[in-house]
Structure prediction request, 208 residues.
Amino acid sequence: MNIGILGGTFDPVHLGHLSIANAAMDQATLERVLFIPAGQPRLKQAEPVASADHRIEMVRRAIEGNPRFQVCDAEVRRPGPTYSVDTLVELSAKLGPGTDLFFILGMDVLDQFDQWKDPERVLTLCRLLVLDRPGERGFDWPGFYNRVPKAKDRVQIVTAPLVDVSATELRRRVAVGEPLDGQVPDAVAEYIQEQGLYLTAREGRRAS
Ligand code: ATP
Prediction:
């Protein structure tokens, strides 16, 4: 069984995340995609802005009605910085043999892959599904494979339509009172409003 893993801060989850999960599901024939909100991402020290409970709830609302998408709280339960390798070890043990894990990530994240904890071990635990988005500036594949030779036969490219949205931009919009313009599912927009999230969001400051 092929299981996709989509890690991120999801602060908030948006249509870009759902688009890459759908593209990965179709193109890598995944049974399920697990959305795994990060606790304290090591490479994004200024985030997250919203609490883990809020970020989990937003993902839950965003994927409601799609039984092949699930939210997993493994990373927010672990104290300290979040390392994907620990999550992959935990999931492999839990799901057992017969499960192949596929880590879904954008090229912006791939670019930092060699700074992850134990990238070699990550590549023995999962394959990488890398999103190639139309309009994306060229990625330096030869440079990447030089830095991470083991990745050569562990990367699969997935294409997804460009959804020009980032969580940073969405937080900025809420903070200045601009609409979210259908860039998050309605249930997520309603939750942000109900809970008063991101009203004072500035990088590095917790609004909740
Ligand atoms: P931030 O703006 O706070 O950095 P983000 O919108 O990039 O957040 P993350 O939760 O950090 O969201 O991203 C999780 C994963 O989703 C990463 O692999 C990232 O490359 C990918 N991703 C984020 N936004 C998009 C998008 N618009 N289209 C495709 N992939 C995306």
Remarks:
- Confidence is low (pLDDT under 50) at residues 201-208.
- Residues 8-11, 16-17, 20, 47, 105-106, 108-109, 131, 133, 163, 165-168 surround adenosine-5'-triphosphate (CB under 6 Å).
- The domain at 2-163 is CATH 3.40.50.620 (Rossmann fold).
- The first helix runs from residue 15 to 27.
